[in-house]
Amino acid sequence: MTTLLLSHPAFIGHETTPGHPERAERMQAVAQALGTDEFKDLKRAEPPLAALEDIALVHPEAYIEAIQAAVPEGDDIAHLDSDTSLSAGSWEAALRGVGAATHAIDQVMAGDVTNAFCAVRPPGHHAETNRAMGFCLFSNAAIAAHYTRKHHGAERIAVVDFDVHHGNGTQQIFWSDQDLFYGSTHQMPLFPGTGDMSETGEGNIFNAPMQSGDGRVKFRSAMDDVILPGLEAFSPDILIISAGFDAHIRDPLGGLELEAEDFGWATTKLMEISYKSAGTRVISMLEGGYDLEGLALSTAAHVKALMAH
Q: Is-above-0.90 flag for pTM?
């Protein structure tokens, strides 16, 4: 059994304005990190274009059509808000990002691979049902959860998010469904301003906010004291990881000061807990991570942990 790596040249075709942190070079940094002999046993594949009906499991058709209609032609960049933009290549990138999620689910649920890492952009966890924001167009992880429920009969689906920013979109989409679990470690105060411990949904939302400078000891405590017990009690049928690496000490957008090995540790702990109910059924979606060296080191540590399980 192997770990599946899904990525595609189309993710480089999603262009942002000069100086934007969410840039095409992120994909090149990830590809280089996972291109060494250490990762030769990865099963590598390119994701398909997602079916619009799968995106519509989370986002209304009118929203999907509005995103498609906003895609510019030529070299133009269209701005959905001050942070979130579209280029001519963004539509294909967004469809293949969702396609990576659904294909990974299919492969893992069929037992064809042990687990999967989806190296995609744009990221997804800030996208709400009817709103693109925070660099995100479609909620990749939430779509994957609903897709698993519809096509594979899984009932209890967990998303755990260790991006430095709170995944407001995933939380909003999961808020009132007791069979969907969302757990997040993140920095507060920081964009998008959500993620307080008091935000609990139907008892299925577990937020563990941290402060700038908290570092690895408090990160590991947040996982051990809040996220992992919540996940174990939830007893998921499958685990989806929103793997953002912008809590790395080198990252310009956060201040949690984690090292690459902290992401490897968290990945291993999450799999140990989810294995009790979900077996090896784990997929991971790339979210943030904007310092190229920090992103590369953290991705390598994360994928090593996936491959070791």
A: yes
